Amino acid sequence: MRHAREAMQAITHTVFFGVVIGLISAIGSHYFRVGITTVNKQVNNNLGQFTLFISFFISLSVAAYVVYLLQKYGNLKKFDGPADSIYAAHRLDNELNIKAGLLSTLAAFFSAAGGASVGQYGPIVHFGATIGSWLKEKFITPITADIFIGCGVAGAISSGFGAPIAGVIFAHEAVTRHFSVKAIAPIAVSSGIAFIATEFLWGTHAPLEQMAPLPAASLNLTVIATLFIAPLFGVCAVVFMRTLEQLIILNKKIKLNRFVKTSLAVIVLSYIGSNLPQVMGLGTDIILKILDGDFGLSFLILLLLGKLIATTVSLSFGFFGGVFSPALFLGAALGAIFAQVLSIFGFEDLHYSVIAICGMASVAGAVIGAPLTAVLIVFELTQSYSLGLSALVSVVIAVLVSEKFYGHSYFDKQLLSRGIDLSDGRVGLLLMDQNIADFISDTATVLKPQYSLVEAKTIMVRNNNSEAYVVDNEKNFLGKVEFMKIVDQDGSLPITDFANLETLTLKHDASLQQAIEIAADFVGESIPIIDESTGQFQGAVTEGDIFTAYLGIQGQITDLEKK
Question: Regarding the domain delimited by 430-553, which CATH topology (the fold level of the hierarchy) does it fall under?
Answer without folding.
Answer: CBS-domain (3.10.580)
